[in-house]
Amino acid sequence: MMLNNKGRPTQPVAVDNGEISIETFTGNMGLRLESPLIFEQGMPGRIGVDMADPRPVKVRLGGLERKGPIGLPDLSEPQVLRHFVRLSRQNYAIDAGFYPLGSCTMKHNPRINEKVARLAGLGDLHPLQPTSTVQGALELIDDLAHWLKTITGMPAVAMSPAAGAHGELCGVMAIRAAHEANGESRTRILVPESAHGTNPATAALCGYKVEAVPARKDGRMDLEAFAEKLGPDVAGVMLTNPNTCGLFETDVKKIADMVHEVGGYFYCDGANLNAILGRVRPGDLGVDAMHINLHKTFSTPHGGGGPGAGPVVLSDALAPFAPIPYVVHNDSGFDLVEQAEGQAQKSFGRMKGFHGQMGMFIRALAYMQSHGADGLRQIAENAVLNANYVRVGLNDKLHSPFDGICMHEALFDDSTLKGTGVTTLDLAKAMIDEGYHPMTMYFPLVVHGAMLIEPTESESRQTLDEFIGAMRHLLDRAAAGDTDYFLGAPHYAPRRRLDETAAARNPVLRYTPPAPTEGEETAFSAAS
């Protein structure tokens, strides 16, 4: 394979009689531009902004002040702008195309939400402002909290958790605080095998022993196995509903009653609320705590670690243990309860700084108000319809491990790929060449070679038809024995197959410049 002038492999281009490598001097291929590391672009003396020399100040760092250069590259403004624009062109996003990632609900973020979040008085709030100056913001938080409680049928909500997993932590900490208030020290939490991976991790982080509950042949939690594991030392159950097989847990009310009978609590993972929005109120099912991913159900940006918001709705039994701070409304207006005293004396404390992710609250409330009650209900109906449209469109090519109608996502296994030499991973890599982000692979773990596809309600029938057509084409190609094509995919991505395992196990987190040669040192000195 030929290398471009930056020492990276030139991408192959398919032609009628096979695959050849076409070399370009720059490494660019049309509008797909090669971008070196930003550190490689730096040159001493380049600047993007002029700043006045700082006035002398008395150092108060106790000998901890920096002794050498900070190590950032010197760059001009066009360099910085071009570098990050080029990187953004290599990234897939919901604004670029269909994003079939199962279990993550990658839905369209309406632009009206963004406009509202940037309004003066909302986009420039500061968390340390006196409450008297942010009455409108506190009212907005209270309004969103009201509608989250109404939608879920729950009496209380904690708004401060910063993400879904953080919300799980909030719910389990409330469960632990409730048991401790009763003088109990319970040790176990039961988690179905099809649960999100954060569920057992959260329970373990809170000091509980996690016991897995197997699934039945229909993909739902085994009620008999669950009953056998119940006991006076069980703090609760963490159940995702609809579960990660894309199925509604039809025994959910019975599960809640069973765990309550032994004095435990029912934590429901609300990541899949999008599938039942306006159709089911979790509070009516006996749920004690449930986090709500605002990015999944209410269209706020789906951040990689942020921005995020994971409010947690709580039952009457757990509401007294909710974290601080939270908004209250009294005769003098809106205020924040920020100390674990008085009405908040049973609170397990503070989970994070300040009061939650305001920008996400604004976007979520704008989404709710623009849709209305009937629109929110239609979201769930269309999400389920679209998932079943994909399921039916692919069922003669891919096998569904569980019979019948699914909820918000269609689940397939790799049984139809056996004997082709093509794996789930190979198929996913080939999807990149077709212009799609791969579906969720190998999850849930209860299904071999799992492929989990969630189209959401945002996509049109035309988009789904094109996606189904691309998948059918790839599956026909695999069945025809074109294994080499799949093993080499992706062929047209900015980078080919990388050693993802090595990258995860041995990440390079600090840039180390190569040692300059004698000639380069001379040239650099002359340039200086």
From TrEMBL:
One example GO MF annotation: pyridoxal phosphate binding
Region (Disordered) residue spans: 504-528
Pfam family, one: Aminotran_5
InterPro entries xref list: Aminotrans_V_dom (IPR000192), GDC-P_C (IPR049316), GDC_P (IPR020581), PyrdxlP-dep_Trfase (IPR015424), PyrdxlP-dep_Trfase_major (IPR015421), PyrdxlP-dep_Trfase_small (IPR015422)
Every Glycine dehydrogenase C-terminal domain range: 381-474
A Gene Ontology cellular-component term: glycine cleavage complex
EC number per UniProt: 1.4.4.2
Reactions catalysed according to its record: N(6)-[(R)-lipoyl]-L-lysyl-[glycine-cleavage complex H protein] + glycine + H(+) = N(6)-[(R)-S(8)-aminomethyldihydrolipoyl]-L-lysyl-[glycine-cleavage complex H protein] + CO2
GO biological process, one term: glycine decarboxylation via glycine cleavage system
Organism taxonomic ancestry: Bacteria, Pseudomonadati, Pseudomonadota, Alphaproteobacteria, Sneathiellales
SUPFAM superfamilies on file: PLP-dependent transferases
EC supergroup of this enzyme: oxidoreductase
Function text: The glycine cleavage system catalyzes the degradation of glycine. The P protein binds the alpha-amino group of glycine through its pyridoxal phosphate cofactor; CO(2) is released and the remaining methylamine moiety is then transferred to the lipoamide cofactor of the H protein.
The protein's name: glycine dehydrogenase (aminomethyl-transferring)
Source taxon at top rank: Bacteria
Aminotransferase class V domain mapped to chain residues: 183-303
Keywords for the protein's UniProt record, in alphabetical order: Aminotransferase, Oxidoreductase, Pyridoxal phosphate, Transferase
